[in-house]
Structure formats: structure tokens, C-alpha cells
Design a protein that fits this description.
Elements (H helix, E strand, L loop, with lengths): L2 E12 L2 E12 L3 E5 L6 H9 L6 E6 L2 E2 L5 H7 L1 E3 L12 H9 L6 H15 L14 H13 L5 E5 L7 H16 L3 E5 L3 H7 L2 E6 L2 E6 L1 H5 L2 H8 L10
Parallel strand pairs: 3-8, 3-9, 6-7, 7-8
Antiparallel strand pairs: 1-2, 1-4, 4-5, 9-10
Helix pairs in contact: 3-4, 3-5, 4-5
The chain binds adenosine-5'-triphosphate and magnesium ion.
């Protein structure tokens, strides 16, 4: 499997906090990979480094073999990397459609084309009925879908999802898992940060575990979930249960 994304020796420090430390992993074309780890492990920082919102202190990031460190977030997005934010932040007064058009305009500069593309994306994520409502009036589950739609509308080859399931109920999580699978089936590679372990176990083919900014385990979900090193990182001591919550 060709590596779509390669992260090599990545490091980022904030003051005295080493948020990401010598992080190396790769994501192959077509994979769904979960990035997990306790709070403060450096997951979101890793996303910000990949997406170009932060610049690493050390290390390389390659997308399709091309070094992307130093490129602007916009340029990285244009290459095919889109992210969602852990704290969803749509433009609250713009309609749902207009929020998605912001993303769609990247590859569809004509407003008419961007509108058509944004509508198609809203159909895909199940928000077509909310198209003309202000984004500020959506429920949390709908806002998470909108966040996904905005990223998808930029036409990514790699989608970085930061806790899109947080705060959702079981039914909403099931639906979102199906949606992520469908998006992946049509050729989009997915790297997702997730605390909802059921989702991690069912949707991802491979799991990368961070703790204290470092990679501590990597492998198939079933193996990682039973890895004593991973359990200890989550719970602070070995054999006190599993990492599901
Ligand atoms: N902009 C920043 N300035 C200073 N410190 C930061 C900044 N961003 C993150 N940190 C710190 O870096 C560490 C990693 O944070 P990060 O948000 O990447 O963790 P995370 O794994 O996404 O955690 P969570 O599961 O809680 O979202 C934490 O100690 C955090 O406080
Ligand atoms: Mg985070």
C-alpha cells in the first residue's frame, strides 16, 4: 500500500510542554486509521502540524511523497488534505449551504458550481433538509455533520477527523460510522482522532496510539486495545480494565 501521508520524527513544543515528540507513522492510500490516546497526548497538535496550522520544531511530513512542512494551510488543503476541528466552528449566521460553499469554492471557483457541489455534499452527509437554515441553529449532531461536510467539500484525498463523534448518542454514532465508511469506500483516506472506542474498534483498520506526545503502540484495533502499555497509558496503571469508555 503506497503511503499517502508520512510523518517522520515530528516534534512540537509549547513553552515547557513537549506536545509531540519524535512522532513517526504513515497512512496508506485507502486506509481508515484511528489516532487515539489520553487527553493531552498530542493528537490535535499532530493534526495541526499535518494541516499546516502549526509549524513543527523538527521532523518532516510528506503527502504523496511531497514535503509539506512550511506550506500554508490553504496550500496543504489544495493538495488534498482537509481537517475538521475538535471545537466545531461554523459561521453561525450563514446558512448551512453557504458554510459548505466556503469549502466547495476551493475546487469550484464558479459560484454556481460551488453551490451544486455543496448541495451534493449536504446530500451525502444527510443535511440536505437543513440547507437553508442558519448553521447556528443546528443540533450538536448536525453541527458535527456540517463540520464534516465543510471538510469534504474541499475534495480531499485525506480527511483528518478530530473527535467528530464526541457528545453524540449511540444512534448518531452508528450513523456517523456508516457515513465515514461510505466516504472511505469512494476513495477518501481517513485519519481520525477518536475517544469513542466502539467507533475506533469498528471503523478503523489500524490504530496509532499517542501518549505524552509519543507513539506508544500501533496495530490492529483488537491488538492495541489489549496492549498493556496502552491500557496503562489510559488508566495510569496496568490491568485495571480496558480502555473503552
Ligand atoms: N496552542 C497551545 N499552546 C500551549 N499549549 C498547547 C497548545 N496546544 C496544545 N497544547 C498542549 O499540548 C499538549 C497536547 O495537546 P493536544 O490538544 O494536542 O492534545 P490531544 O491529544 O488532542 O488532547 P484531547 O484528547 O484532550 O483533545 C497538552 O498538554 C496541551 O495543553
Ligand atoms: Mg484534541
Amino acid at each position: 500500500m503506497a503511503a499517502l501521508l508520512e510523518v517522520i520524527g515530528l516534534a512540537k513544543q509549547f513553552g515547557g510542554v513537549q506536545a509531540v515528540k519524535d512522532l513517526t507513522f504513515a497512512v496508506g492510500e485507502g486506509e481508515i486509521v484511528a489516532l487515539i490516546g489520553p487527553n493531552g497526548a498530542g493528537k490535535t497538535t499532530a493534526f495541526s502540524l499535518i494541516a499546516g496550522a502549526l509549524r513543527p520544531d523538527a521532523g518532516q511530513i510528506r503527502f504523496r511523497g511531497r514535503p509539506i512542512v512550511g506550506l500554508s494551510p490553504h496550500a496543504i488543503c489544495a493538495l488534498g488534505v482537509a481537517r475538521t476541528f475538535q471545537i466545531v466552528r461554523p459561521f453561525p449566521r450563514l446558512t448551512v449551504l453557504r458554510n459548505v460553499m466556503v469549502g466547495a469554492l476551493l475546487r469550484h471557483p464558479e459560484v454556481q458550481d460551488a453551490t451544486a457541489h455543496a448541495r451534493a455534499v449536504l446530500d451525502e452527509v444527510g443535511l440536505a433538509g437543513k440547507r437553508d437554515q442558519p448553521a447556528g441553529g443546528l443540533t450538536l449532531a448536525e453541527r458535527k455533520r456540517l463540520e464534516l461536510a465543510r471538510a469534504l467539500a474541499t475534495g480531499p484525498a485525506l480527511l483528518l477527523l478530530d473527535e467528530v463523534m464526541a457528545g453524540l448518542n449511540a444512534t448518531e454514532i452508528e450513523r456517523l460510522i456508516e457515513l465515514i465508511r461510505a466516504i472511505n469506500r469512494r476513495g477518501v483516506t481517513v485519519l481520525l482522532i477518536e475517544h469513542v472506542m466502539r467507533a475506533v474498534m469498528t471503523v478503523s483498520g489500524r490504530v496509532v496510539v499517542l501518549s505524552g506526545g509519543q507513539l506508544i503502540a500501533e496495530g490492529p484495533p483488537s491488538r492495541v486495545a489489549n496492549d498493556p502499555v496502552v491500557i496503562e497509558a489510559y488508566l495510569g496503571e496496568p490491568d485495571s480494565g480496558d480502555i473503552a469508555r
